[in-house]
Amino acid sequence: MKTATVLFSALVFSFYAFDSGAADLTAREIMQKVDDRDDGDNRISEMKMVLIDKNGDTRTRKIKTFAKDLITDKGEEDRRTIMFFLEPADVKDTGFLTYDFDAYDKDDDQWLFLPALKKTKRIASTDKSGSFMGSDFNYSDMTRKNLDAYEYKILKEDEVRGAKTWVIEAQPKTQEEIDQSGYKKSVVFVRQDNFVVVRAVHWTDIGDKLKYLDVTGLELMDGVWTTTAMTMTTKKNKLTEHKTELTFYNILYNQGLDDAMFNLRRLEKGL
């Protein structure tokens, strides 16, 4: 269930060998392996975001991202991510900071710095279902989901670009989770050889729309399955309303990032 982080996050994958025992996994166990993947550490990358409206008109943004894992005293693996918009001029120096906590009972923290207003806005839990910077991704897509907040069911097996996948339905247990994520149901396609989510369909809670995630580029880098391209498309009544294309490049792992990179002071200072 983690996209992008995701994106941005999110997005972000590692390798597991598939064996005969994997065929006996439950849907919940499969999603746990997705969540437990090694997604690389001390990562620096650049991203091109293309926003496409229903008329085919486009807007392009360029972003630089830094991400680091932190091990807590309890042995939990938290992730901190900071993004800086480089282009175009109207969003330049906008910053986005995320504290993605491993503990499911702890709400993730997110802040958005708006240079035009010289103001940092904390993203409240009630706002995480909103669009991230005009894209088809929600703020909630930028962090890991609480696996215990969902019921999982294997619907069938399928293939995505020649790779075998499990097709798994994820149903939120509470209205609170629906309100925060913005989705009342999701179906995810998990590759059986590496536990990467390569496709997903999300049913939005508001507006009766469908969002289609598709990982169009996936490469093994330094032993980490890494997303190099993905799209999110919003449709209603089978008509495309909007689409976001993401391309990731200049991806580097193990860069020795300092903890001081990931705080509000650095967010407001910029690159």
UniProtKB/TrEMBL annotation:
Domain spans labelled Uncharacterized protein TP-0789: 78-269
The keyword Signal appears for this protein: yes
Keyword Transmembrane annotated: no
Matches recorded under InterPro entries: TP_0789-like
Signal sequence interval, chain numbering: 1-22
Top-level taxonomic group: Bacteria
Name the record gives this protein: Outer membrane lipoprotein-sorting protein
Naturally occurring in which organism (per UniProt): Magnetovibrio blakemorei
